[in-house]
Amino acid sequence: MPNSFVVCKLFLLLVLFIFHYKDRKSKLNRLLTMDTDLLEQQDIDLSPDLQDHMQPQEEAAQKVKQYYRFWILPKLWISINFDRLTLLALFDRNREILENVLAVILAILVAFLGSVLLIEGFFKDIWVFQFCLVIASCQYSLLKSVQPDSSSPRHGHNRIIAYSRPVYFCLCCGLIWLLDYGSRNISTTRFRLYGMAFTNPLLLLSARDLVIVFTLCFPIVFFIGLLPQVNTFVMYLCEQLDIHVFGGNATTSLLAALYSFICSIVAVALLYGLCYGALKDSWDGQHIPVLFSIFCGLLVAISYHLSRQSSDPSVLFSLVQSKFFPNSEDKNPEDPLSEVKDPLPEKLRNSVVSKLFNFFLIHSKRLLYVGFYVLYALVGTVGFVTHYVLPQLRKQLPWHCFSHPLLKTKEYYQFEVRNAAHVMWFEKLHIWLLFVEKNVIYPLIVLNELSSSAKNIYVYCGGKLIVTGLKLLRSSFSSPTCQYVTVIFTVLFFTFDYKSFTETMLLDLFFMSILFSKLWELFYKLRFVYTYIAPWQITWGSAFHAFAQPFAVPHSAMLFVQAAVSAFFSTPLNPFLGSAIFITSYARPVKFWERDYNTKRVDHSNTRLASQLDRNPGSDDNNLNSIFYEHLTRSLQHSLCGDLLLGRWGNYSTGDCFILASDYLNALVHLIEIGNGLVTFQLRGLEFRGTYCQQREVEAITEGVEEDEGFCCCEPGHLPHMLSFNAAFGQRWLAWEVLVTKYVLEGYSITDNSAASMLQVFDLRKILTTYYVKGIIYYVTTSPKLEEWLANETMQEGLRLCTDRNYVDVDPTFNPNIDEDYDHRLAGISRESFCMIYLNWIEYCCSRREKPLDSSKDSPLVTLCYGLCVLGRRALGTASHHMSSNLESFLYGLHALFKGDFRISSIRDEWIFADMELLRKVVVPGIRMSLKLHQDHFTSPDEYDDPSVLYEAITTHEENLVIAHEGDPAWRSAVLSNSPSLLALRHVMDDGTNEYKIIMLNKRYLSFRVIKVNKECVRGLWAGQQQELVFLRNRNPERGSIQNAKQALRNMINSSCDQPIGYPIYVSPLTTSYSDSHEQLKEILGGAISLGNIRSFIVSTWHRLRKGCGAGCNSGGNIEDSDAGGGASCTSNNATINESQSSMSQGGGSATTGQGPGAVQHPPVAAHPTTLPAAHPPTHPSTLGKIKIKHSNNFIQVQSYRQNWPSSSLDQA
């Protein structure tokens, strides 16, 4: 013991030493912010704590040394020499006062709790020294943190990581003290669960010793990186408690985790009063108290509402803000996108409103004991069919035995999908089974068990009843995929195998649901490990991989233990440096990435004008192609939740990862939060033209295995519609599987053509210039400001020389090989030659105006057109550096004008500054439209020679086509607004390439392959990359951990990490998709159960009844009119009858009336009731017409809306 007290005294001196450093640190920070030159010029005695040593006169010119006087004891101090870089290497710089205060508080807590444990005698001999080292390391980390730390999620200095060690030390010390106190002061009442006494003193002492050993191992724990930083730990803890205790969902941020956890606690607190009153009430064998029925109904309603609520409160807050503070969102008038209204936030708010008014109230009576087995048998049958049989039958390779899906969609055999996905019968069956399972069967089971368990639960243990019921109901509403397995196993296990250990079926289901979630996670981890290290398919990316493969074989037992521990704590199991050696990483939430990294697209709205003109930022393919992944995210936001519910992506759960692959798009979709009618996901888009390794893995997921005929080393073939032995074996040893090959999603088809090949010869450039001139003439004649421009005196003065009929512009930039109106005699472009070529076009455009103007040869309109066309071509020549004959220079100038970079270099063109709208609304659209017309010229070379055809073509393109530069914010707005067609000229400068492409986008339905990846494979590879690049600082771009591994898609997964760890070209923000935005799902289920929808249903039903009764009272009617809106009374039917009578009287009694070719007279209905065409309509789609039957007195009027009805069918009618 005396040795221990000596060590304690030394430790206290060390603590005082650190505190004294901390007190002086704020003053040092102020010094560090000052200029070093100023410090050298200032007097030496800057403060009482700073002094210098006297220097000789000959050394006065040298650099002055500065010292810091540190007091060890009163009247005992030492001088510490420092400069700025030395001090920064010694201490961290705190930026705020709050950081200093927090550091001092944590240092005090560490010292206090450490001293308490030392005094209590928890450590003996050498372990006292080890514990003091742990205390010293925790306190010193507040002065100088480890950078980079093994659990740091980012490059560079991480300010949060400095507080990890002291916070965890305080938690462990507090836990040690509580466990020791509990073991010594345990009450006689012991908490037992499944026969195990959890309040046994021996068990508490064992737990205390385990925490003590863990605390002593802090240096190793933090070196390996087994504990996350503090904010990640808080988010992880709240998320895990909310999921496993309250049945919540994954969360998207620390604020969302706290918000969701608090909502669950508030819900339990609100229900506790009702539950307490219900349990105090009298129970008998025949009746259930009314208060308990009210409690059950509110429990179901609150559980349903919480399952429908997103964990992110920002959308709800924006809804409240828009309702109560509509003018609080101030817009920046200088924002280029201020006029562009994004419809997405309003759609999200409407979806949240519909979910807030959802209600689902179930009142359940006690089920008969006979129905107990029937109900659980129903759960097993419905769950097995819905979540196993149907998904397997719809997979691309069912059970990895069949070579094609057994239940095929309509689009399966289509080469090119042109319409939205057709809803199949098995999709309707799946959604109805899912609806009944999670909204009827599971609530009945939980309510039945609540009623059965309530009588056996102590009155003060109502919280146990609330928590278990809330967890089971919320989890069944949100993710019922694997619930049937848990329920059936629990019933069989505690009913037939270990009936004596049951703790009521309600608690059994609660704990078994937690156990099964961990077992599923362990299953996925082991499957990933065995797939990754299988010796017949492992790929060695480096020499270390070859060494690690045999080294890992003897440690298989340790690997299994690591997998079990990581599954218990939900931590990733990552391959070390991509090898076969696996280590456990620190705990992470389902979201995985602590940093909210989102791609910021570079365009003209967020770059300086000078950089746009000189360097053309954002001209690489990755930045320009990121907009397509952003549009794909928007498309998924509208359809993903509904498609998941329809079973188009197979079975899914929280944290699952999918890959969407098409001709050029390859994106990883990470499902984060899965609620009842909502899904929060994140999309990570990969490069269009990836690396060699990425291309090999893309080929692996796109190539089929149906043609494989191998059986071991021979090729005997395979059975019809079945896979060969080698193919079936290989599919079972993959960390991914192809679910769907024809997943239909709305997007853009991208066509890129080389501009150099389209403008290689002079004739093609001349055609482009001609369309350029005609485009300028079109836009100036159709402009509403034309009359204002013609009356502008400044423009008239600037164009005064052009009014002369003999005027000629002899600028050297004009070229006879490019300009069609070039005058060879005058060596320039004269007004006369211009009129010879373009006067006819000017006259036609002017004739199409509502108010025609004078378009004669000497008119001001022709002068203005001539001046603009000369200016436009001179600007093209200037941008081309007066080298239009050179193709590269011509393309450079064309791209400069296309993005709006017009440089007025001639004094003869300065008249354009009188109104810059001429450039924005006339010249720029002219050069952009010429590119589209030049493309059309290849399909119809002589079609645009007719002015009317050319005029209509430009008008049509103006309405249906968006032509803009890809750096223009209008381009992004047009893509996200689902414009039907877009066109742009792209200049790509990346990796030494310098080429120009004409990009054409057409909106259509795209076909994707959906590949499901083992989520533990994704989490493990992500964790491995983060550790390798951030902590181990491996900067090798060809490192072994990113080489292709087809069995795990290692390169594609590692490429999708956040930059700079990975290199995705787009990472979407966390996006929530609601089922209310899926039209096909709303047609099947009728939308959400809300007050508004119930009111609409009642009103529409009432209108249909009124319409039917009105039609019946008048011996005739049209039911289709009631479907179209209803609400018409009997008078509307009478009006229709009167119209038909008057029209027939005007026909002169002929067989065909004036209402249509199909109106004929017939005998009464009762005479020939079965000879109507409506009873036997033609079956061919081309001849199927819409029939309306109107009763008028004793005649029937038949109207056909198709002209190709066979006359024989009408004659028979």
From TrEMBL:
Membrane topology per record: Multi-pass membrane protein
Keyword NAD in annotation: no
Boundaries of every Pecanex C-terminal domain copy: 854-1080
Transmembrane parts of this sequence: 6-21, 97-119, 163-181, 202-227, 254-276, 288-306, 367-390, 481-498, 504-522, 560-583
Regions of compositional bias (Gly residues) in chain numbering: 1146-1157
Location of region: Disordered: 1136-1182
InterPro entries referenced in this protein's UniProt entry, alphabetically: Pecanex (IPR039797), Pecanex_C (IPR007735)
Family under the similarity heading: Belongs to the pecanex family.
Name by which UniProt lists this protein: Pecanex-like protein
Species lineage: Eukaryota, Metazoa, Chordata, Craniata, Vertebrata
